[in-house]
Amino acid sequence: MVLPRDTGFSRSYGRNPYVGYDRVDRPPFLFDGGQDDRLLSKESVAAIDSGDVSAALPLPVLETELVVNYPKNEPDVAVFFKPGTVSALDKTLIVDAKDIGATGVFDAYLDGETLTFSLIDGNFVDDQTRATWNILGEGLEGEMAGKSLTPVVHGNHFWFAWGAFYPETLIYRGVS
Questions:
Q1: Contact 119, 156 (CB under 8 A)
Q2: Could you read off the pLDDT of 2-49 as tens digits, one per residue?
Q3: Where are the domains of the chain?
């Protein structure tokens, strides 16, 4: 079954009803909770929660650093950022929207060793074996080719939404 265009309502289902919602300079609507002012309300964050520790890594910081080796208390995690994913909230047509990128968060422990990562020539590379990895945590070249990092459950959220549920969240501010 397919949703027909003739629904009896004036709203077009082929158009974004939330144009500009992800603009950080505008407050969120339909939210009346308290605001955590450590970040702008609609700052996008890659958020992780281990039960003991919650952390938020702002996407603008990730967009600058591209790779973060984050000591989340057991296990350490590797956070990758890759440009090339557009916002579903920016423009009427998604194809015209701004690039907001994508994130991958992984347990950095593999084969008895904690890996750390760098970005070299546009590739995610582990410092221990010099193998290259993709945004999905898949080893592409080198001695780790064919291996996979274990994904860490995370989400890309607006800060106001994450902060409302996890007020004790640690915020990654970037390498100083």
A1: no
A2: 877 777 877 777 678 889 999 999 989 888 888 899 999 999 999 999
A3: 44-170
Give the closest residue to 174 by CA, choosing from 45, 19, 4: 45
**The pLDDT of residue 78:** 97
Q: Which residue is associated with the tokens 């964050």?
A: 45
Look up the pTM and report it: 0.89
Q: Which two tokens stand for residue 123?
A: 């590739």
Contact 129, 103 (CB under 8 A): no
Strand pairing class (123-126; 132-133): antiparallel
Between 11 and 138, whose confidence is greater?
138
The whole-angstrom separation of Cα 11 and Cα 2 is 17
- Calculate Rg over the CA atoms of the chain: 19
Q: Fold for domain 44-170?
A: Rieske Iron-sulfur Protein (2.102.10)
Question: Could you tell me the sign of the dihedral formed by the alpha carbons of 4, 7, 10, 15, in that order?
Answer: negative
Q: Which 3 state secondary structure label does DSSP give 124?
A: strand
